[in-house]
Input
Amino acid sequence: MASAEFMKENLGNALCLAKWQQVSLHLPTGLTNSCYHPPLHQIDASLLKDNPSALHNTPHKQAQRVIMLKNERPEECSYCWAQEDMGNLSDRHYRSGEPWAAEHYEDITKYTGNESDIIPSYVEVNFNHACNLKCSYCSPQFSSSWADDVARYGAYPTRVPHNDPNYFTSSRRPIPARESNPYVDAFWDWFPELYPKLKHFRMTGGEPLMDKNTYKVFDYVLALPKPDLHLNVTSNFSVEEKLFDQYLDYVKRLCNTQIEHFMQYVSLDTGNPAHAEYIRSGMSFDRVEWYTTRYLEEVPYRNSLTFIITMNNLSILGLQQQLEWILALRKHHSKTYQRVWFDTPLLRTPSWQSLQILPPVYVSVLERVADWMEANKETADKPFQGFKDYEIQRMRRDIDWMKEGSKLDAEYVKLQRADFFRFFNEYDKRNKTNFLDTFPQMREFWDECRYHAQN
Output
């Protein structure tokens, strides 16, 4: 297996294997990208009837591949370029170093850019935007609860009206599951060709546990077992228990003999229950804890669980509390292999929820968390029970990016802080919450944001 360090030395200045081997498909809107860093772009539905692989091999993506093969940096991949310019390993290195991508390294370095029908080995798909939560940084494209909110109350009163229902019309309108969807139809036309070469298949949402296509995929895999398949699902773990029981029964059967591994991703941004429920409106922290316990205890083989901690400016005060829980879960459930993981992707939009607009004192909060992680590193005599080097490196990478906020134009930061107040002030009205009751430690920041909003 190639490492991120190997890829740093051998990929050159621009090549990223994910541009060929990974795809994220947002089928309700017909949008795609290679990973979650570049902006989403539209899939041309007219190409799909004759070539369903155009879900992945879009003209835009093909053009970006040509740029990379020239050892030039595509502008849309600026997140990784910024990390590398700071001297860090980027997600380009980490992703390209994973087995599903690295095994194609020799082939891709010989490509000319004329290869059209690449079959990816890592596919992430969102079939449906139906979701029972209304997370603060989400949108109607990915949550039916958000769509219902803005249909009833309208856009949020930020400087540029946020989640304006007038924006989510025409091609930006998520196609409901009850309507015919050419992108979903093309996916199922493509799936028999795609399936044999898949190494990782991940379903996101919306909330996948609420979507019939999730169980259609499960039935397909049960009928045609694939011993080298890593099957992954991202959930908020806040659905009704009857639905979770149905889902867990499927997972148990899949993990029996049908696949290599099942990874359960759980979206949870902080370990403070009140903070978590505020960020993800409609979630039940108790239910997340209970379902996590059930999953780890009732599915004893071929599986792991990863918490997706989206690093936003409301998550960091309870971050260590969440990591302490993760350590406890590791000690209890990881015996012969690591079953409990976490990732800390950075939130970049909406920009008023970014770490970069927080005052410098909050940097020290994250630095203390990173130092605490360093003091609780995994050791040879206690495997699977501490933090791994790269987990600590990723946290420090997030801190480096947060510090870059000090270089932002002061007027820009004031505008973002003003929008922070405008958004969450309205968010409180609609959700019957109170920011200062939930985050009393952030009063000084809140007051400053209010001042900028009012002046």
Remarks:
- The radius of gyration is 22 Å.
- Residues 4-120 form one domain.
